[in-house]
TrEMBL record:
The keyword rRNA-binding does not apply. This is non-specific serine/threonine protein kinase. It is found in: Membrane. Residues 47-260 form the Protein kinase domain.
């Protein structure tokens, strides 16, 4: 169930970054208190980028220390500096650098050194969501999984509607993140389980309240629709997760494309 949420988060994040970047108003003159690092600084901080924490669609993340080893940080290195990558870097500087929310990781600094682009974040000692979900001794119970999903939604809602006026508002409905073949298959399988009333397969190995599980799956399926204009707003997503509004029967993730 949280894997479906992860796909939805990826799509929302890519969609938001693309739309902001397309506005063309993002620059390095950001009115935030961020520390500037040289690439040499970050090589030392990470011991030559020795310890990799993870990889994502926007780059590779490494573990490091600042303040004479007293504070752990996570350093994201963008792999390719293209025109799109530059916009991506500047967008994250502008938006995340101004953002302070308990459900969002804090940006501490950046490196804009020649063609190298890196971002320095607070280190999250609990690891990534994947670490929590797939490490047997860390796996959360059902209630904890629901709370994780709600907190993720609160963080995204803050970025979309509450952090600063118009930061994430001028979106283009055609923009969305593209998924790999494996992720598309996962979407289709999840929808098949929903249609076949086999929701237990989506929460294998953990006790889940059936009504809560159905609600979470329905929310996830609405959030991964191929057509962005059909997806609910983050405010609506949070209300659905909290059980305060009714959730319609979700469409097939590819239903819009099949009618084109």
């Amino acid at each position: 169930m949280l894997v479906i949420s992860g796909i939805a988060i990826y799509r929302n994040r890519v969609w938001a970054y693309k739309s902001l970047s397309n506005n063309g108003n993002v620059g390095l003159s950001v009115d935030v208190s961020l520390r500037s690092f040289t690439y040499s600084d970050l090589e030392k901080i990470t011991n030559g980028f020795k310890e990799e924490l993870g990889r994502g669609s926007f780059g590779t993340v490494y573990k490091g220390t600042i303040w004479n080893g007293q504070k752990l940080v996570a350093i994201k290195r963008l792999e390719k500096v293209s025109a799109e990558g530059e916009k991506e870097f500047q967008t994250e500087m502008k938006v995340i650098g101004r953002t302070h929310h308990k459900n969002l990781v804090r940006l501490l600094g950046y490196c804009h050194d020649g063609e190298k682009r890196l971002l320095v974040y607070d280190y999250m000692s609990n690891g990534s969501l994947a670490d929590v979900l797939f490490t047997p001794e860390k796996q959360p119970c059902w209630d904890e999984r629901i709370e994780i999903a709600r907190n993720i939604a609160k963080g995204i809602l803050y970025l979309h509607e509450e952090s600063r006026p118009n930061q994430y508002h001028d979106w283009h409905s055609r923009d969305k993140g593209n998924l790999s073949e494996e992720e598309s298959i996962l979407e289709e399988w999840a929808y098949h389980c929903f249609e076949a009333r086999e929701l237990g397969k989506l929460a294998s190995g953990t006790y889940a309240d059936k009504r809560q599980l159905e609600r979470m799956v329905k929310v996830g399926l609405w959030c991964i629709l191929d057509e962005p204009s059909l997806r609910p707003s983050m405010k609506k997503v949070l209300l659905m997760l909290e059980g305060t509004v009714d959730i319609p029967i979700p469409l097939s993730p590819t239903s819009f494309l099949s009618t084109v």
